Amino acid sequence: MRILAVNAGAHMSGAESVLLDLLAHAGKEGWDRELLCPYGPLAEKGSALARHVEIPAMTPGSTRPGAAESRIGRIVRLATLPLRWLQSGARIRREARDADVVLVNSTMALPAIGVAFAERLYSGSTRRSRRRPRIVWLVHDTITHRKQQIAARLGGRALTLAIAVSSTTARSVESYVHDVVVRPNGVSIPPQPVTPPQNRTPVVGVLAVLTSWKGQHVAIDALTKAPGVTLEIAGSAFPGSEDYEQFLRTKVTELGLTDRVRFLGHVDKSSVFTRWDAMLSPSTSPEAGPLGVLEAMASGVPVIATNHGGSADYLRDGRGLLVAPGDSSALAHGIRHLTSDREKNESLRRVGREAAVNEHDLTSTIASMWQGISRD
């Protein structure tokens, strides 16, 4: 049996971590594996798990880590995106001739799937035969933006199945794909939760790449309404978002918060969870299945997140605090609540970890995803 995994970009994020976990699981099941993606961090990390086949980047942003891209550069990359879809689609079709499964890990790769399997867009049949592999989209995006909607329309009808990592995300793709199921994300569960920090200045944190839709600017604004609290921003700039990092640093200076906001860069989550009274996930656009939220829950760290996407799903029924997207006042209220009410804080630590253990253990979630990917 052979699986062909397709990723639009070269860089690592939560979606790519899930893909690598699935490729490792496929290897344990005895499958041959190929990874089609641009050369970069993902290809390097995946080299021990799958044979790498290089394809053009199918993302509109920069492909150069640590390098800002000019406006003209962005325009050129956007203008050439259709050509890169065509080139990638041709390569996918060649590589997929003997594949049993094609796993699509990126929304922006869907147009290339439409190119590779154009006959499916019109035949109305998605049944696998010797010449038609099972094509599965692992949905890591809640489809709300125009570019996502276009990509889904261009390739969605060629798919056999879409596996969404949250219920909210599943609803957002139902109009583009014949068959949709939900398989939530999972994380490694620490043997013990972190010990709640005590008798010190309250600290909250954001654990995410620095890019505008992750909402770090909202957390900074909220800090002006939560006196006595320190904010730690953990994460480095996502390629193409270097200007946003400078915007955040300038904002902190202009608001007079330099003594209360710390930029940590990329850190291991275990090094910050031990001192955070709460983790913030203030994304302004809906995340499909935020791993940072699950990692905090699994470690026993209370979460305050925006009430949309996978966060709303994972933190339902009082497993965390949910606030309106972009509402810094509501976020500040949540921060004040969890840093002053010890009973509420400890309750969310307990309830959140229990939900992570019962529903989001990586050993179970990867097996469940794989069952959906590989089934006939």
Automatic annotation (TrEMBL):
Entries under InterPro entries matching the protein: Glyco_trans_1, Glyco_trans_4-like_N
The keyword Secreted is annotated on this UniProt entry: no
Molecular function, one GO term: glycosyltransferase activity
Superkingdom: Bacteria
Alphabetized Pfam families for the sequence: Glyco_transf_4, Glycos_transf_1
Glycosyl transferase family domain residues: 198-354
Keyword field: Glycosyltransferase, Transferase
Domain called Glycosyltransferase subfamily 4-like N-terminal: residue spans: 13-188
Full protein name: Lipopolysaccharide core biosynthesis glycosyltransferase LpsE
Species of the source: Dietzia timorensis
